[in-house]
Specification:
The complex is a heterodimer. Chain A is α+β, with helices and mostly antiparallel strands. Helix content of chain A is about 40%, strand content about 20%. Chain B is built from six helices and eight strands, in the order ααββββααββββαα. Chain B has helices at about 1-70, 90-115, 165-175, 180-205, 265-280, 280-290, and strands at about 115-120, 125-135, 140-150, 155-160, 210-215, 220-230, 235-240, 255-260. In chain B, helix 1 crosses helix 2 (about 90-115). The chains are: A alpha+beta, B alpha+beta.
Chain lengths: ~325, ~300
C-alpha cells in the first residue's frame, strides 16, 4: 500500500467514531473473520489504526477498498458536511423509464469522457437512493481521494443532492448527471443544509403535510405552555385557527431539520424618517439570516403561539412550499 | 287610656291598610311586567314563525327545482307546479344556482364515498383543495392533496404528490385550465396505479418470504425477483417485471432467466409468464407455489 492510501485510511479512521467502528468494518466485509476477531476494539484508536493498516497490507487491499469503506461510513452517517440540492429540468421522453444499470453506465461513460482521471463508485442503497462517490484528478494527476464529492439521486425524481464539489468540477458533474438522467439542464434548488435527510425530505415532500379537510380534527399542541383556564376559553378558537395555519404552512409532527434560511434583500429603502437613506436610486442591500438547530420547528411555534402574525407570510411559507432556503427579494417579489 | 289605645289601634289599622295597598300595587306591577314579558315573547315567536315560513317556502321551491334538475337535467323557468314564485326570473335564477350547487355537492360527496377525489373550498372561495384517495383491492391507501388557486389561471400552489409522478407533464397534457376533470381523472389513474403496484410489492414481501426482491425502484415500475426452484439442485431463477405503462397495475413485460437454460422455454414456465402478465403479483405467486414451480 502506498503512502497516499495509508494516509487515506488513517484519516478515515480518525473520522469514524469508535462506537461505530466495529459495525462498519463488519459491513465492509473485506477482512476475514479471524482478522476481525483479532482486532481489539478496546484499545486506543491509534493502536487500532496501526493494527488495521497491517491487516490491510497483509490482505493486499488497495485504494478502491478503502474508498468503499469511506462510502459505507458516509452512507450510514450522511448528516455531515454541507449538502446542496439541485433540480433537473425539462425531462426528455425516456427519463421516467431510466433504470439503474443504464444510469450507471451512462454516468460513468460521460464523466470519464469529460475528465479522464476520475474514480467513480456507484452504490444503490436500500431506500432506492443511488450514491455516487467521485474523486477528481485531471489530465496529468491521479484522482485525489482526500476530497471526494458525494452525489445522491433517486431515480425518476428530478432532484440531486451534492456535497464536497468545488466550483471547478461542478459544471462537469452537472453535465454528466444531466446526460445520464436524460434531462436537459440542472439548476440550483437554493436549498442547503448539514442534514441530508432534512433537505431530501423537504424537496421530496416526505414530511407530514397538512391540508384543509372536511372534518378537521382539532390539532393538539405538542408542548403546551402553562395555562390559565379563563384566557384559554376566550382564545380557544383563535388558538385552533393559528395552529391549523401553522401546520398547513410548515407541516405536522417531526419536521425536517433545517439550520438556516437566508433572505438577500435588493429592495429600495422605504422609511420616511431616515432622510439620508430614503430616496436613493440603488437598492438597499441587506441580508437577513434565520438560524436555529431546527428552523422549521421554531417557525411553526412562532406562528402557533401568535408571535408571528397569521395568515403566514409567503416569505416564510415559501421555505416549505418551494423547498428552498436561500431567497433573493427584489421590489417585484421573491 | 281609651284614646291612647284608639290611637295605637288606629295607627296599626293605618299600617295594615298601607301594607295591603302596597301589596296590591306590587301585584299590579308584577302582572304588568309579566304581561310585557309575555307580549315581547309573543312578538319574537311570531317573527320567528314568519321567518321559518319563508325558509320553508324557499326550501320547497329549491327541492322542486332540484328534482326537476335531477330528472331532466334542464331547468324550467316557468312551470305550472312552481306557482309560488312571484318574484319572477331573478329569484328563479338564484334558485337554479342553489339547486345546482346542492346537486354538485351531493355528486362530489358520492364520488368521495366510492373512493374518487373530493373537492373542498378554502380561503373563503379563493382556492380549492382536492383530495385524491387511492385504494387497492378494497383497502384504502394514501390520500394525496392538491391545493389549487382560483385566479384567472388555475395554479397549483402546493401538493403532497411524490416527485416521481410527472405532475407538470400531466398539467400541460391534461389541459388543467380548460378541462380539470380530465386532468384529475388522469392524475387519479396514475396515483391509484402507483399505489396498487406498491401494495402488490408490499404484500409479496409480507406473504412470500421465500421470494427475494433483487431490485425495485421508487415508482415500482421495475422489479427483479429471485425464485428458488424446488428440487435437489435448488436452482435460482431471476424474473424481471417491467411496468412500462404507468397507469396500469399489471406488468407489460415479464422476463425469466435461469441457470438451467431450458427452464424458461418449458411449458410450465411459459404458463407462469402468462400468469404474471395477467394477474396481480402476490396472487400469481400463490398459484405458482401451488403448482410447485417455486418454493
Amino acid at each position: 500500500m502506498d503512502d497516499s492510501t495509508k494516509r487515506l485510511l488513517q484519516r478515515l479512521m480518525r473520522r469514524i467514531p469508535s462506537q461505530m467502528l466495529q459495525t462498519i468494518l463488519d459491513k465492509w466485509a473485506h477482512l476475514s473473520r479471524e482478522d476481525l476477531h483479532s482486532l481489539d476494539f478496546t484499545q486506543p484508536k491509534w493502536v487500532l489504526t496501526e493494527h488495521l493498516l497491517a491487516l490491510c497490507e497483509e490482505n493486499g487491499l488497495r485504494v478502491k477498498h478503502i474508498t468503499e469503506l469511506e462510502m459505507i461510513y458516509i452512507i450510514e452517517n450522511p448528516n455531515q458536511g454541507m449538502w446542496h440540492g439541485f433540480q433537473l429540468l425539462d425531462a426528455e421522453e425516456d427519463a421516467p423509464s431510466i433504470e439503474l444499470t443504464q444510469f450507471k453506465e451512462q454516468f460513468k461513460a460521460n464523466l470519464t469522457e469529460l475528465i479522464s482521471h476520475v474514480s467513480i463508485k456507484i452504490k444503490k442503497h436500500t431506500d432506492e437512493a443511488i450514491w455516487i462517490r467521485v474523486a477528481w484528478g485531471d489530465n496529468f494527476t491521479k484522482p485525489y481521494h482526500l476530497k471526494p464529492t458525494y452525489v445522491v439521486h433517486h431515480l425518476q425524481t428530478p432532484y440531486v443532492f451534492v456535497t464536497g464539489v468545488t466550483s471547478k468540477h461542478k459544471p462537469l458533474l452537472n453535465q454528466a448527471l444531466v446526460l445520464a438522467t436524460r434531462y436537459s439542464s440542472m439548476k440550483d434548488a437554493h436549498l442547503s443544509g448539514r442534514n441530508l435527510t432534512a433537505i431530501r425530505d423537504l424537496l421530496m415532500r416526505q414530511y407530514q403535510q397538512v391540508f384543509p379537510t372536511k372534518h378537521p380534527k382539532p390539532l393538539q399542541e405538542k408542548n403546551p405552555v402553562p395555562r390559565n383556564p379563563n384566557i384559554e376559553k376566550e382564545q380557544a378558537e383563535n388558538t385552533e385557527n393559528r395552529l391549523q395555519m401553522a401546520c398547513e404552512a410548515f407541516g405536522d409532527g417531526t419536521l425536517p431539520q433545517l439550520q438556516k434560511a437566508v433572505y438577500k434583500l435588493e429592495t429600495k429603502f422605504r422609511d420616511n424618517s431616515n432622510k439620508t437613506l430614503t430616496g436613493r436610486e440603488e437598492p438597499f442591500r441587506g441580508v437577513v439570516e434565520f438560524a436555529s438547530t431546527n428552523l422549521l420547528e421554531s417557525l411553526r411555534h412562532c406562528v402557533s403561539s401568535g408571535m408571528a402574525s397569521t395568515p403566514v407570510t409567503p416569505l416564510l411559507s415559501s421555505i416549505t412550499q418551494k423547498g428552498r432556503n436561500y431567497f433573493v427579494i427584489t421590489d417585484k417579489g421573491v | 287610656m281609651e284614646e291612647a289605645r284608639k290611637g295605637l289601634l288606629g295607627h296599626l289599622n293605618m299600617l295594615e291598610m298601607e301594607a295591603n295597598n302596597l301589596e296590591l300595587q306590587q301585584q299590579e306591577l308584577r302582572q304588568r311586567g309579566r304581561q310585557e314579558e309575555l307580549s315581547a315573547n309573543l312578538q319574537a315567536l311570531l317573527s320567528k314563525r314568519d321567518q321559518l315560513k319563508v325558509e320553508i317556502k324557499a326550501n320547497t321551491s329549491l327541492q322542486k327545482m332540484r328534482t326537476l334538475l335531477d330528472r331532466t337535467g334542464v331547468p324550467y323557468e316557468r312551470n305550472e307546479d312552481v306557482d309560488d314564485l312571484e318574484d319572477g326570473s331573478d329569484n328563479s335564477q338564484l334558485l337554479l344556482m342553489m339547486a345546482r350547487h346542492t346537486q354538485l355537492k351531493d355528486l362530489l360527496h358520492a364520488h368521495h364515498l366510492i373512493g374518487g377525489y373530493d373537492v373542498l373550498q378554502t380561503r373563503k372561495g379563493k382556492g380549492v383543495c382536492v383530495s385524491l384517495a387511492t385504494a387497492y383491492e378494497g383497502v384504502y391507501l394514501e390520500t394525496y392533496n392538491l391545493e389549487i388557486d382560483l385566479g384567472s389561471n388555475l395554479r397549483i400552489c402546493r401538493h403532497n404528490i411524490p416527485p416521481f409522478i410527472p405532475l407538470e407533464r400531466l398539467v400541460t397534457q391534461g389541459n388543467m385550465q380548460t378541462d380539470i376533470r380530465d386532468f384529475l381523472d388522469t392524475l387519479s389513474q396514475y396515483l391509484n396505479a402507483y399505489a396498487g403496484r406498491k401494495q402488490q410489492l408490499h404484500l409479496t414481501k409480507e406473504i412470500h418470504s421465500s421470494v427475494q426482491v433483487a431490485e425495485s425502484n421508487a415508482l415500482c415500475t421495475i422489479l427483479v425477483l429471485m425464485f428458488t426452484i424446488p428440487g435437489e439442485k435448488a436452482e435460482t431463477t431471476l424474473c424481471t417485471l417491467q411496468y412500462a405503462d404507468h397507469t396500469q397495475r399489471l406488468p407489460t413485460r415479464v422476463n425469466i432467466e435461469s441457470e438451467d437454460t431450458a427452464l424458461a422455454s418449458s411449458p410450465q414456465w411459459k404458463k407462469n409468464q402468462a400468469l404474471l402478465l395477467e394477474t396481480p403479483l402476490h396472487t400469481a405467486l400463490v398459484t405458482m407455489k401451488k403448482t410447485g414451480s417455486i418454493a
